[in-house]
Design brief:
By secondary structure, this protein is of the alpha+beta class. It contains ten helices and 16 strands. α1 runs antiparallel to α3 and α3 crosses α10. The protein binds zinc ion.
């Protein structure tokens, strides 16, 4: 493939300079006006490139189409997605990207004096010889997820310049407010009109993420009996003590701080109460749904032991592992893995210890694995991304589109 690099870097450097931080608790949607600044910029660029059906709605969803170039094509419409907002956790205003040329090992020093230490960042070693992009150390960089935006548009621009490469219909979508968990709130799957999609929102080069946690929350409530402490003998039941007992008995259950990779956990996330009433809120996580049920049952059991008549456990499903949505057709993940290989990169398939917009979309009817965008240390002033990963993501997308070009329709 002729190299589509210069464009992806140039796009990335421009997009990160637009402040698009999202904001929790905002009344508006998208949550901040800055997101529209980038969406308008992208809208204009998409039109200028020749992308069709460019449409930006009032909620900040920007869609467009690259029509098929195969005569009588009747295949699978694929979607490519990235989010325009950056994390509310770290300042995203006045981002000044810095290019560290040809990484040769060792620490990276940012203009602010902040360092990215090689010892703490073993992944730097994957990118020897590549330029590495950081902020100046006073803001986040915003590779999450402007790398994804730049990669998708660079890939489409490449396809537009190379009409000899056959492809089916491609829909692209740029979405707001992913970082505050609202990215799919007004996403209209029917209007988007793809049968399978990919979010470009992963990290390390080669990642194909097709699995995420199953998630539920549980609230355990203890009812106490409050009596004046002076006359409390044999009468008072202190709900605070009941909650403490519960937590002590769960002390050795798998927790976020003691697990990794494919292990699930039971996580006491919030605790509140007084003598009369105490509640503990738990997060339950497991890659198997059966594991969520097992952990919920364990909670009920221990709560009963602690206070047979004064405890109540309420469990609510939060989200599910998207893996089950890909079982219908092995190509959804298989083509992504193959495209990564075709770009000369070793695929990495790690389960995500969290949820993604793609997971939510998968349950809204649009199967949607997550692919690497290339960034590292998201949501921090040390966020960095190698140029190599930006380039390989573009190549991966071009191969992915090619693999789907003449593929037969999905079942159902
Ligand atoms: Zn992201």
């Amino acid at each position: 493939m002729q190299q589509p690099q210069p464009e992806v870097l140039d796009r990335f450097l421009r997009y990160v300079q637009v402040d698009t931080q999202s904001q929790e608790g905002s009344e508006s949607f998208p949550s901040t006006p800055g997101q529209f600044d980038l969406l308008w910029l992208l809208e204009g660029e998409m039109r200028a490139m020749g992308i069709q059906d460019v449409e930006l709605d009032e909620h900040g969803y920007l869609f467009g189409t690259l029509p098929e170039n195969i005569p009588d094509w009747d295949g699978v419409v694929i979607g490519l997605l990235a989010h325009v907002d950056t994390s509310p956790d770290v300042n995203g205003k006045d981002v000044k990207p810095v290019i560290h040329p040809a990484y040769a090992g060792g620490d990276l020093e940012l203009p602010s004096g902040l360092r990215i230490e090689a010892a703490q960042n073993p992944k730097l070693a994957l990118y020897l010889g590549s330029d590495i992009i950081t902020s100046d150390g006073t803001t986040l960089l915003g590779a999450d997820d402007k790398a994804g935006v730049a990669e998708i548009l660079a890939a489409l621009s490449y396809l537009l310049a190379h009409p000899e490469i056959p492809h089916g219909r491609i829909r692209i979508g740029f979405t707001p407010d992913e970082e505050i968990g609202e990215g799919t709130r007004f996403f209209d799957v029917a209007r988007f009109g793809a049968q399978v999609a990919y979010t470009m929102d992963g990290g390390t080069i080669g990642e194909v993420e097709a699995e995420n946690f199953n998630a539920a929350s549980a609230t355990v409530t203890f009812k106490g009996v409050n009596v004046h402490p002076g006359y409390a003998k044999d009468k008072m039941v202190n709900a605070i003590r009941l909650a403490a007992k519960l937590l002590t008995r769960l002390e050795h259950d798998p927790a976020p701080e003691t697990t990794e990779a494919r292990e699930g956990y039971l996580h006491p996330q919030a605790l509140s109460g007084d003598v009369e009433k105490a509640t503990v809120r738990f997060l339950l996580r497991d890659f198997e749904w059966e594991g969520i049920e097992r952990r919920a049952e364990r909670l009920r059991e221990v709560a009963r032991e602690v206070a047979p008549d004064a405890s109540e456990v309420e469990v609510k499903e939060s989200y599910r592992n998207m893996r089950e949505r890909f079982a219908q057709d092995p190509r959804i993940v298989g083509f992504a893995v193959e495209a990564v290989r075709m770009a000369g990169v070793e695929p990495r398939q790690n389960p995500i210890r969290g949820g993604t917009d793609g997971a939510r979309l998968s349950f809204m009817g649009l199967p949607c694995p997550n692919l690497f965008a290339g960034g590292e240390l998201f949501h921090s002033k040390q966020e960095w991304i190698p140029l190599l990963a930006l380039e390989k993501a573009v190549e991966t997308l071009v191969h992915l589109v090619g693999l789907w070009a003449r593929a037969e329709k999905l079942p159902g």
